[in-house]
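Summary of Year 1 activities. Much of the first year was spent building the evaluation harness for sequence design. The harness presents a backbone, in tokenized form, and records the residue chosen at every position. We chose the following record to illustrate the format because it has been used consistently in internal testing since the harness was completed.
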């Protein structure tokens, strides 16, 4: 029997990659029906709302939620929170926020985001099992995007000279939220030079607000001196998602953009340093995880260079 949850409140304060690791769980909650309000980072919320995973969104850093992290002040009002029948709180551990939220929504369910160290498993699978109603982990369709985002991506590429159906596109994101998680920038620059040396292969390189100025400047210079390299800096998530869905291959570090590539079903390679790919890799099966050592040498690639490996996969 199909059970409707009524009005559901979801609170997820993670960055892009962390929220996208929760996609199977969010889809499971969504499939049960009801009205769904998602509190998360604004750009992520707008992206997921259009994809149909929320009816309403709010900023996770809203002043409405800040009192829930400490002792509630006298006379504090629940406001719109009292209108919900159930809440899901994505958190690494039990915290005061959950206890305070129960003052407004008695049925609060915590979805722990980090698997226990003694029982490691993929984070997305671990979260999905906590959502109830089974633990089906099959890949879903790519996230839906506004038509305007597809149009923007196609016009951008065509305007640069890319021939859809004739050329091949590799999307590269050399950055990440943590420098230790990044394959050396020099390696990426050499790889992009090698890939774009093929006359039918184009590279679109991505950078965002977390990247150091050194990386941004190097990518800008690379694009300025190579007609088949396009640099996109701080584009909206929907624009990046459209480009990733068009791309024939993706290459990047353990980052939010790598998880976005997986969510858009872009086949690719994600390079992992200190983090465990068995737990944190994008859950799309078309993404291959390759670990690298402290000096940037890939551990698990064959004798072929990584650029040849990518070209052979196109």
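For this record, the design step produced the sequence shown next.
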């Amino acid at each position: 029997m199909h059970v409707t949850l009524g009005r559901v409140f979801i609170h997820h304060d993670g960055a892009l990659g962390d929220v996208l690791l929760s996609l199977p769980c969010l889809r499971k909650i969504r499939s049960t029906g009801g009205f769904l309000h998602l509190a998360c980072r604004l750009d992520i919320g707008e992206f997921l709302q259009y994809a149909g995973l929320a009816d309403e969104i709010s900023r996770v850093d809203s002043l409405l939620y800040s009192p829930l992290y400490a002792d509630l002040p006298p006379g504090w009002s629940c406001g719109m929170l009292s209108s919900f029948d159930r809440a899901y709180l994505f958190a690494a551990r039990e915290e005061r926020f959950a206890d305070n939220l129960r003052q407004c929504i008695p049925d609060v369910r915590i979805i722990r985001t980090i698997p226990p160290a003694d029982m490691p498993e993929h984070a997305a699978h671990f979260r999905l099992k906590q959502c109830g109603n089974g633990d089906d982990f099959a890949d879903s369709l790519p996230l839906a995007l506004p038509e305007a985002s597809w149009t923007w991506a196609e016009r951008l590429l065509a305007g640069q000279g890319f021939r859809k159906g004739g050329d091949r596109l590799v999307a590269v994101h050399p950055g990440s939220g943590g420098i230790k998680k990044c394959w050396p920038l020099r390696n990426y620059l050499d790889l992009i030079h090698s890939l774009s040396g093929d006359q039918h292969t184009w590279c679109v390189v991505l950078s965002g607000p977390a990247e150091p100025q050194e990386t941004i400047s190097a990518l800008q210079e690379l694009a300025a001196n190579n007609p088949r390299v396009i640099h996109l800096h701080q584009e909206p998530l929907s624009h990046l998602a459209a480009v990733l869905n068009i791309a024939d291959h993706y290459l990047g570090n353990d980052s939010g953009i790598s998880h976005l590539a997986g969510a858009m079903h872009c086949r690719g390679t994600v390079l992992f340093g200190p983090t465990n790919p068995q737990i944190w890799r994008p859950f799309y099966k078309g993404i291959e995880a390759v670990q690298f050592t402290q000096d940037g040498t890939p551990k698990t690639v064959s004798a072929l260079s990584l650029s040849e490996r990518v070209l052979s996969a196109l």
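The domain at 7-130 is CATH 3.40.50 (Rossmann fold). Quantitative recovery figures across the full test set are reported in Table 2.
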